Amino acid sequence: MILTDQISRILRDFGITVFFGIPGIHNLPFYRVFHADGHKLVTVRHEQSAAFMADGFARASGRIAGCLLIDGPGFLNAATAIAQARADSIPMVVLTPCGASTESGKLHELTGQAAVSREITRAHMRLDRMTTVSSLCDFLDNSLRRNRPGPIHLEVPLTLLDYDLSAEEDWRPARKEQEITDSTFSDAIEVLKNAIQPVIIVGGGVLHAQRELVEFAEMIDAPVVNTTNAKGILPSGHRLSVGYSPSFPEIRDLIQNADVVIALGTELGETDFDFFLTNKNVECQCLIRVDVDPDQLSSNASADIGIVGDSRKVLQSILKQDLHKEHEKNERVLQTREQVQKNIHFNRDMHAFLQVIQEQTDILVGDSSQPNYYAQLLYEPDMVRGYFHSVTGFGTLGYSIPATIGAKIAQPDERVACLVGDGGAAFTLSELQTASQLSLGIPFIIWNNEGYGEIDKAMFSESTARYYTSPRPPNFALIAQAFYMNFRQPQNLSHLRNDLATAYREDTPTIIEVSEPEFMRKDHWISWFEETV
Questions:
Q1: Backbone angles phi, psi at 394, to 5 degrees
Q2: DSSP state, 130?
Q3: Which of 15, 155, 299, 386 could lock onto 126 through a cystine, CB 3.0 to 4.6 A?
Q4: CA distance 371 to 353
């Protein structure tokens, strides 16, 4: 069996059967074999979008997809999106060919491709004639199942495409990890037993442990604060769900006043905990941190007690302990939410806009734009993996259009929508053709403030002078026509609700252009509020 066949079957054994990419002369052998093996191959318009789609696929479903790219320019085109996935710990497999290290002047030549890869991925492996089936499987097992999630890169020299990896023995996964019972775990249990006002902070590293997290929160009767990547981790309306964003001072006070904080699977990073750029780290009286990555135990806030391990396994071990506390009304949650609602500089119009989207949508994918900054603070989806965006971590633009496509491919039965500004949409606008060709009934909500609206606000807050040219958006109605899509331009919230409902019933994607100057006119809103309040 030649190498391309072996890789195809090994990746299938690891549950990776969907690949996004662009075929080229160097990776056509993989396309031929993967197609014959029944893998789903999605052709994109730009390699950056391939990695964004794999990212959205993973966030929406918890499953891993692959990127099938050419070496050199294809890999570099995807580099920004790969780095975004690394920053947010989103797993994917990037598969590219590569030339021999001694070659020069060859097609797609990038002799430093491995060096670039090591900077932007979690793990890199270049196959050679010493590689065996077992060593490749061990690499995948450690990278995808045991260590901190993130993109990994497999480089296959063109000279090895017809090579047969040695398979002298059958590969078996390493022995199952033992129950976590080290001294730091015992210390954490003792602290939790004596806790009077505990608080739980959860990040994206807990999404696969939702059931255990809910049971743990109810067992110790602790408010749950979630990052953006963990929105929806508690069922909607749960008495222990704080909601909102931990950047709000009222929620930071809740954390600071807790006698014990247990942070699970979160970096405690700036974009979640210091969105307003106060340059203040999270402060805790006693901090217990649980993370699969030992480096995270001292990142942004040093743990008083640090436990290295997968959050699900740690929670399963904790749940075996006798930590049950009397359930109360949990006034801390109610008071915190009331204080946020009272003190926030509340844009009623934007909140109502997001509420309409939430009513109609199961999974919303966002980009850096005005409504998504509000969504980071206020949006509360009804399900885990129900909202994510690229504002966290690396903070790329152009994320949401391809990531929404990846999410819809992963969850075809869910109502999946994209929320993007006209500036961000321009980065990956061509992928609307991909959605159209695949007959994906996605509403692409484009918030049109005629250029880089948020950057304009930042500029004019410093100076009355304009020192850059904001890009003029295209005619989105004509774009929809050219890409064989539907087009809607709602004038109020009632129109928006109807347009979303219609879009989800279609097999054709829809551009829903929301013109900020027109849509936010007060006279358009009065009748809607009179009807609904």
A1: -70, -30
A2: T
A3: 155
A4: 9
Measured CA to CA, the distance from residue 209 to residue 216 in angstroms comes to 10
Cα–Cα distance between 265 and 272 in angstroms, integer?
13
d(CA 352, CA 531): 13
For residue 89 the two structure tokens come to 């710990």
Is the pLDDT at 103 greater than 60? The verdict is no
Amino acid letter, residue 152: I
| Residue keyed to tokens 């991925």 | 121
Lowest mean pLDDT among 62-66, 269-273, 276-280: 276-280
CA dist., res. 229 & res. 231, Å (int): 6
Cα–Cα distance, 22 to 64 (Å, whole number) = 18
Residue spans per domain, the chain: 3-160, 183-342, 348-532
* pLDDT per residue as tens digits for the range 442-489: 999 999 988 776 777 666 667 677 777 778 899 999 999 999 999 999
User: Which 3 state secondary structure label does DSSP give 76?
Assistant: helix
Inter-residue contact 271 to 395 (CB < 8 Å): yes
pLDDT digits (tens, 9 = 90+) for 321-360: 988 877 666 789 999 998 988 877 667 788 889 999 999 9
| pLDDT tens-digit readout, 359-413 | 999 999 999 888 998 898 889 898 999 999 998 778 899 999 999 999 999 999 9
Q: Are 3-160 and 183-342 the same fold in CATH?
A: yes
Q: How many angstroms separate the CA atoms of 325 and 305, rounded?
A: 22
Q: Which fold has domain 183-342?
A: Rossmann fold (3.40.50)
Query: Domain 348-532 falls in which CATH fold?
Result: Rossmann fold (3.40.50)
Tokens of 180: 């976590």
Q: pLDDT by residue (tens digit) across 121-131?
A: 999 999 999 99
Residues 6+ away with beta carbon under 8 Å from 474: 426, 429
Q: What is the DSSP letter of 145?
A: I
The domain 3-160 is classified under which CATH number: 2.40.50.580, 3.40.50.720, 3.40.50.970, 3.40.430.10?
Answer: 3.40.50.970
